[in-house]
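user: can you give me the structure for this one chain? tokens are fine.
assistant: on it. calling the predictor now.
[tool input]
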Amino acid sequence: MKKRIAAFFAAILLVFAPVSAASAAETPARPGVTINVYNWGEYLSAGGDGSMNVNAEFTRRTGIRVNYTTFEDNESLYSKLAGGGANYDVIFPSDYMVARLIREKLIQKLDYKNIPNYRYIDKAYRGGVYDPKGGYSVPYTWGVVGIFYNKKYVKEKVDSWKILWNPKYTGKILMFDNPRDAFGIAQKILGYSYNSARSDEWNAAAKLLEQQKPLVQAYVMDQIFDKMSSGEAWLAPYYAGDAVTLVRDNPDIGFAVPTKEGTNFFVDAMCIPAGAKHKREAEAYINFLCEPDVAAANMEAVGYSTPESAARKLLPQEMREDPIIYPPEAVLRKAETYTDLPDDVSLQVDALWAQVKMGGAGQTVTLIAVLAGFLAVYIGVVVFKKIKRKRELR
């Protein structure tokens, strides 16, 4: 019976959607298996507006089902994996997080024999500083960070991150709700590296973010889509790939990369967690996403840059030549990539980020004092009850 089912799905694969011979031969597929995929929000074509439903197409071709969930930032992904309770087969971390996951042994080496479509990944995107030997990851997308702005209200040229500190736009500014991107903007204004190991430079960046806080309407991630589209917010730093959703759907919204200070160049990759239960099926999924026709259809819908020249050639001309999706060399030369920070620096960044979000060092100290007070009261009550009970027993 199992052989008949396998033959049935193999027939569908050949008749309706043939893939490369290498893909079919070297990626064993077990129809009926369900893999758990954990990706960023708005980061996979779901079939809207006539686009490819990537997960449904993968299931149609292989018989492998996909349980698909999303996260908002790398830190949320890390918390799930480090906590040990996650059960994912494929994840999509950014470059610096890939390096951290490798270092902490939270992802496993890939069997590239099961990912023959890796050959389509351009050499320029292989073996980055986050995965020098290319053993743990396959590039999924790349891009830069810039500023979305409402042209009805923001009339000045958007060429510097400093506009996000302009009091004229108080209450209309959104800010990243993750530490690396938020601190990165402050670091560029101050002329520092994203990957500084100097404690004083991170402290200075935190102070700059604290100064900005009264101007900020909200710290967000994917919520920028609704807030910018509705006009509730006028300025928001975010990833260039989302211009396909924001800029094209709303003529009032523009996008610019701050050329005065430079920006972040990132690569998001596909990896398999150390505890994945369906490694071969996960590799089949990664291989499928690297198929040029699939990669092109996927990127056409999500708007991000593909690391495959073969896929880029299949995109509509306006996307291939869009300077937002494929920035000019001058922008890329001035861009910097995040790297994995030392543990002591990471701890400092986490503490400073909590301080920024709570409104500064003063409020942090106040909160600690309040918590200490509650703890003292709690300990006092516990001690009092124990003493009282001993007296009663006498």
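assistant: here you go. Strands lie at 34-40, 65-71, 90-91, 138-150, 173-176, 216-220, 235-239, 253-256, 265-270. The first strand starts at residue 34 and ends at 40.
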